[in-house]
Design goal:
By secondary structure, the protein is an alpha/beta fold. The protein folds into three domains: 6-275, 2-enoyl-CoA Hydratase, Chain A, domain 1 (Alpha-Beta Complex); 318-496, 3-Layer(aba) Sandwich (Rossmann fold); 502-576 and 613-711, Orthogonal Bundle (N-(1-d-carboxylethyl)-l-norvaline Dehydrogenase, domain 2). The protein has 31 helices and 19 strands. The chain is globular, with a radius of gyration of 28 Å. The structure holds 1,4-dihydronicotinamide adenine dinucleotide. 1,4-dihydronicotinamide adenine dinucleotide (NAI) binds at residues 321-327, 345-347, 350, 401-404, 408, 412, 429-431, 453, 455.
Length: 712
């Protein structure tokens, strides 16, 4: 028999304790086996009349319960509705027993308490929480396209109030111990060391006062709220949700519906309604896609970037050359994670500007939404802005972020490499220049790689770690560990034009220009991308990136793949008229100021008019297919060339790098939902557009065999 995850012990003769500790796992999750164990213990404990209380705690310090076992969810994706409803009912019935025991039940929470874990804790009569920053209480199910299904939607509004429950469940954000206390979700908060004592004190207190008996009665009935209040809450919350989800994520609205419906019922009936609602949501395409994204992110967190167990070098000091937009962002990311950073620039004024920017960024306090002097005092000593190469070269990793020009970059390397320690790593933030080309002439190419951040560094989680032909595993592992240390999600890619994300992005952006030339309206192009779920339209993206930068990147792609990269005069025409995008307040759109929304203007139409071809009849599907299918085709080439180590890297890269819609699960996950044969069929009417719309050998082979990308 396998080792048990739940152990029964007694703190005192009349106080039972169930400790949850999944053997060999870093976190506790509620698998069917764990729920069965819990049920077994309750069977015995419920019969005892000599107990004053039961405490449920975790045997893993700093983590209570991370939630349900999502791998079991994935294996149930195709299950029938009644099976899903029964799954919910089983969990609900088990947890409800915690609120019916002949003694008080108390959850002692230290660390994450999420999803199913939070539901278990809520069905206890009382909760005590540790105040450590690791304690997070929340119901994040909507982020997986679901809502709580083990009684969370019935129990939370009864304890914390309907409005609070709506906010927590439809938003999916977690709260800390103090906030839980304010909502009545925690009955006491204390340090992790004193948590057990606090739980015991609650048992003894309740044994005396028996207040929990009254709460059991109250929380089993309907919620007292007037019709008017209910209608107002429903209208405001649904308006807000629609605005946030843009209709792409059905779970928050479904959760709202169940919460409002359940309010008038007793808790049992509300649980039944919850199970019925979950049966509708579970297994939906959005649910499957979001579960996939969860596993993509989870895989990325565990990925060391290398196949073997190479130990990354310790990085205690980072150097950044080039104090422009990117260099400043990289330095700020390092300093914020308390990593001493030296930054330099050829231009003194750039260095001065950057120092100010970095300090402003790291001093910003998200909670107060203002500069925090304490933060400035803490972080300022970690930043060294200097013109001394010697100070810079003392770093363990030096990241170059000077202008995008191979010969300038090579000169910088030539100047710095000789001064660096023999084992220190040199990296480039280049967005387009092949790493192989930059490595030419280096003395230690094995210690060189690309570490490509995305703009703005503060916001974008993705970092491409690019392996050059001679880059060592230790260099890659160190770059990956460094990126993670500063809060980023690194993906290791092999060298190649545009690396991963820009290579996939350019065919999409180019096609938007081609659509324009074929007579599609600007707003239709933008709308079709946004309806697909992209955070902005491709023409707006041109303006954000800068038309000059886009032209440079386009040239790299054209040089590499002339047969399928179309060149048009749209970008040069706009640039000649001084329209470089947002930075010049005009590009495809015109901007009143740098952060304003783009507006259409006549000059644009006048400039573009003469370039337009004979207009084609283009349906909405034509637009979507022309924008997104070339991305899929390019991804097949990327896989054929082994640019990535796994198809999942393509999907996470696009979600984190350009905001590809998570509700589609990733580019190739989405492609799998269509199937290769269908994609080939969709490409057929586009064949007159030439090479860029031709199915690749890989796609044709997959269409024949029925294989999916995720089977690879
Ligand atoms: P930027 O023009 O804002 O900054 C470049 C800085 O390098 C300037 O301050 C300049 O004075 C300095 N510099 C030039 N030559 C130098 C030298 N020999 N020694 C020391 N400093 C020197 O450029 P940005 O946008 O920060 O780009 C830097 C690098 O990052 C480029 O390789 C670019 O392709 C890449 N990148 C840019 C992204 C973007 O969206 N801007 C995104 C990802 C990568």
């Amino acid at each position: 028999m396998s080792e048990s995850a739940v152990t029964l012990s007694f703190w005192e003769n009349d106080v039972a304790v169930l400790s949850i500790d999944l053997p060999g796992k870093g976190a506790n999750v509620l698998s069917t086996a764990v729920l069965d164990e819990l049920a077994g213990h309750l069977d015995a404990l419920e019969k005892r009349s000599d107990l004053a209380g039961l405490v449920i705690r975790s045997g893993k310090p700093g983590t209570f319960l991370a939630g349900a076992d999502l791998r079991e969810f994935v294996s149930s994706l195709g299950a029938a509705k009644d099976v899903i409803a029964a799954m919910c009912r089983r969990g609900q019935t088990l947890f409800q027993r915690l609120s019916r025991c002949p003694f008080v039940t108390v959850a002692a929470i230290d660390g994450v308490c999420l999803g199913g874990g939070a539901e278990l804790a809520m069905w206890c009569d009382r909760r005590v929480m540790a105040t450590s920053p690791k304690t997070q209480f929340g119901l994040p199910e909507v982020k997986l396209g679901l809502f709580p299904g083990w009684g969370g939607t019935a129990r939370l509004p009864r304890i914390a109030g309907l409005g609070n429950a709506v906010e927590m469940i439809t938003g999916g954000e977690s709260i800390a111990a103090d906030a839980a206390m304010a909502l009545g979700l925690a009955d006491d908060v204390t340090s992790a060391e004193k948590l057990d004592a606090a739980a015991l004190a609650v048992v003894r207190d309740e044994q005396q006062t028996r207040k929990y008996v009254e709460d059991r009665r109250r929380w089993s009935g309907p919620i007292s709220i007037s019709e008017t209040e209910l209608a107002f809450l429903g209208a405001t919350a649904s308006g807000f949700i629609q605005q946030q989800t843009k209709g792409h994520y059905p779970a928050p609205l479904a959760a709202l519906e169940v919460l409002l419906e359940g309010a008038a019922m007793d808790a049992d009936a509300a649980c039944e309604a919850e199970a019925a609602g979950m049966a509708e949501l579970f297994g939906s395409p959005v649910n499957a896609a979001l579960l996939n994204v969860f596993f993509l992110a989870d895989r990325n967190k565990k990925d060391t970037g290398v196949a073997n167990d190479v130990v990354p070098r310790e990085v205690k000091h980072v150097g950044v050359i080039g104090a422009g937009i990117m260099g400043s962002g990289i330095a700020a990311a390092c300093v914020r994670r308390e990593l001493p950073t030296t930054i330099t620039d050829a231009a003194a004024e750039a260095l001065a500007r950057s120092t100010k920017l970095v300090l402003e960024e790291v001093s910003y306090n998200k909670l107060t939404k203002a500069t925090d002097v304490q933060r400035t005092l803490k972080f300022a000593p970690l930043l060294n802005a200097t013109t001394s190469d010697v100070e810079l070269a003392a770093a363990d990793v030096v990241i170059e972020a000077v202008v995008e020009n191979a010969s300038v970059k090579r000169q910088v390397f030539g100047r710095i490499e000789g001064k660096m320690r023999d084992d220190a790593i040199l990296a480039s933030n280049t967005s387009t220049i092949p790493i192989a080309k930059l490595a030419e002439g280096l003395k230690r190419p094995e210690l060189f790689c690309g570490i490509h951040f995305f703009n703005p560094v503060r916001k974008m989680p993705l970092v491409e770690v690019i392996r050059g032909p001679k880059t060592s595993d230790a260099t890659i592992a160190t770059a990956v560990a460094l990126a993670k240390r500063i809060g980023k999600s690194p993906i290791v890619v092999n060298d190649g034009p545009g690396f991963l994300v820009n290579r996939l992005l350019l065919p999409y952006m180019n096609e938007a220009v081609e659509l324009l030339l074929d007579g599609a309206k600007v707003e239709h192009i933008e709308k079709s991308a946004k309806s697909f779920g992209m955070p902005m339209g491709p023409l707006t993206l041109f303006d954000v990136v800068g038309l000059d930068t886009a032209v440079n990147a386009g040239l790299v792609m054209h040089e590499a793949f002339p047969e399928r990269t179309v060149v048009s005069s749209v970008l040069p025409t706009l640039m000649k008229a001084g329209r470089l995008g947002q930075k010049s307040l005009a590009g495809f759109f015109r901007y009143k100021h740098a952060t304003a929304r783009g507006e259409r203007d006549e000059e644009f139409d006048r400039l573009i008019g003469p370039l337009l071809r004979e207009p084609k009849k283009l349906s909405r599907d034509d637009l979507t297919n022309r924008l997104f299918l070339p991305m899929v085709l390019e991804a097949t080439r990327i896989l054929e060339e082994n640019i990535v180590r796994d198809v999942r890297d393509v999907d996470l890269g696009l979600i984190y790098g350009i905001g590809f819609p998570p509700f589609k699960g990733g580019l190739l996950f989405w492609a799998d939902t269509l199937g290769a044969a269908k994609i080939v069929e969709m490409l057929q009417p586009l064949s007159s557009l030439g090479e860029r719309m031709q199915p690749t050998a890989m796609l044709l082979e997959m269409a024949k065999s029925g294989k999916r990308f995720y089977d690879r």
